[in-house]
Amino acid sequence: MMNESVFDIGSKIKELRLKKGLTLKQVAKETGFSPALISQIENNNISPPIATLAKLAAFFDVKIGYFFENESENVKYSICRKGEGKKVERVISKSGKKHGYTYEALAIDFKGKKMEPFILKIDKNLVEEDCLYNHEGEEFLMVLKGNVVVAIEKERINLSEGDSIYFDSSAKHRLLNPFDKEAYVLAVILRE
User: Helix 9-19 and helix 50-60: axis angle, to 10°?
Assistant: First the structure.
């Protein structure tokens, strides 16, 4: 379902940090992430979860899509054929643990978009709840295949194939998959 193309998210974050004349420690202090985590992201040793990327985008005053844009001209529409999105792997939580999902960015050649669409592949037997995330904006999730549990604050909401949820992403949240099969979820994030 996803291809092996990978973005150079780290160099874009580093470029933004250097343009502002900031150190790793300064960015860490303002975002709540450790300097080591930001360094690992900048060096493309790990990929940030979408929520972490959203916080970094807000801090640097760019849209999440900035990290996925290529150098092509802007277009009036974007087609992404099955399996042709850009995959982001090695997603690590701020505690340094494997996060349990990968994501595929869609509509990457449409610059300046207001919505950020992704396909999330959630590993089976993912029950770790210690890392709930939040970020500015709103989020829409629709289960394409399998079953998931959406943790929002203290609530746990079961979603099956075809079910969807729309929520304020400033609430701490996380996708879980306590089931024996991988799940695929369409996620659309809006950050004004």
Answer: 20
DSSP string covering 4-43: -----HHHHHHHHHHHTT--HHHHHHHHT--HHHHHHHHT
pLDDT score of 95 more than 60:
no
Could you tell me the pTM of the whole model?
A: 0.71
Instruction: Of 149, 122, 121, 141, give the one whose Cα is nearest residue 186.
Output: 141
Exposure of 8 in the CB half-sphere (CA atoms within 13 A) = 6
Distance CA 176, CA 183 (A): 10
For the record, the structure tokens of 115 come out as: 């919505």
Task: Please tell me whether residue 9 adopts helix, strand or coil conformation.
Answer: helix
Which phi and psi angles does 76 have, rounded to 5°? -85, -20
pLDDT tens digits for range 6-45: 568 888 899 999 999 999 999 988 888 889 889 988 988 8
Distance in angstroms (rounded) separating the CA atoms of residues 37 and 182: 27
Q: How far apart are CA 104 and CA 2, in angstroms?
A: 7
- CB-based contact 166:139 (threshold 8 Å): yes
Average pLDDT, the chain: 84
